[in-house]
Design goal:
Elements (H helix, E strand, L loop, with lengths): L10 H19 L4 H4 L2 E2 L2 E5 H16 L9 H11 L4 H13 L10 H19 L8 H12 L7 E4 L4 E4 L9 E4 L2 H8 L5 H5 L2 E2 L23
Parallel strand pairs: 3-5
Antiparallel strand pairs: 1-2, 3-4, 5-6
Helix pairs in contact: 1-5, 1-6, 3-4, 3-5, 3-6, 6-7, 7-8
Length: about 230
């Protein structure tokens, strides 16, 4: 398959993917002891595990209240985390569920794509910080990998080969000459969101020298240090 075939998902699909991811994060977080809730999340080094969940809950609340109609900037995310700091974990999770169910999971917000990308990325940030890998083949990972490929704009023709799909991105190839990257959907989500270092990006499975595209692969980042998960 190519990227042209991967645009059939609906807001309902994205809403379900968000809900399933929220429920997995809730199950992961609900019974954590306090010392694990305070674990620093390497992908978000200013935040603890609890802070990441606070951010996710605050985003959902802000969408319900229409305080947020675009991705929050750094100052806004810091304010979100601070606003949620005094809530107990059970209250935080309950508030997240209530807000998300009436907005994101119902497919009613214009930023639903960004919401699904955000929650999926942070699920695996949390799993990495807590050494609890899982859900790497989830529907959310599949959808997010496709959305992130749709917005990838390398300066040279690039074919990204995953376990069940291929994406042709960048300018049209002349004489069939493409740089090829063989990866997985999970890895694509992680490197695209800046959860891999420059050295890790260069060491991926490339068909030729990737120097021309390495700086264009990420929405954020790259990570300062290697991320092993």
């Amino acid at each position: 398959m190519t990227n042209e075939t991967h645009k059939s998902y609906t807001n309902a699909d994205l809403g379900r993917a968000y809900r399933d991811t929220r429920e997995r994060v809730t199950a992961l977080i609900r019974e954590l002891p306090d010392h694990e809730l305070k674990t620093v999340v390497p992908a978000c080094p200013a935040w603890s595990v609890r802070d990441v969940v606070g951010h996710l809950a605050a985003v959902a609340e802000d969408m319900v209240s229409r305080r947020l109609t675009r991705p929050p900037n750094e100052a806004e995310t810091a304010a979100q985390v601070e606003r949620m700091r005094d809530r107990s974990v059970p209250q935080l999770l309950a508030d997240w569920e209530k807000a998300a169910a009436s907005s994101i999971e119902a497919g009613l917000v214009s930023t639903i794509r960004i919401s699904v990308i955000d929650v999926t990325s942070h699920e695996h940030d949390l799993r990495s910080a807590l050494s609890r890998p899982g859900a790497r083949d989830s529907e959310a990972v599949r959808l997010v990998s496709e959305m992130l490929m749709e917005t990838l704009r390398p300066p040279v023709p690039l074919r990204v080969v995953m376990e069940d799909a291929e994406f042709h991105v960048g300018p049209e190839a002349e004489d069939g000459q493409e740089l090829v990257l063989t990866t997985s959907r999970f890895e694509a989500v992680r490197w695209r969101m800046g959860r891999r270092s420059a050295a890790q990006l260069a060491a991926m499975q490339w068909s030729a020298d990737p120097a021309a595209v390495l700086g264009k692969l990420m929405v954020f980042g790259p990570a300062e240090d290697d991320v092993i998960e």
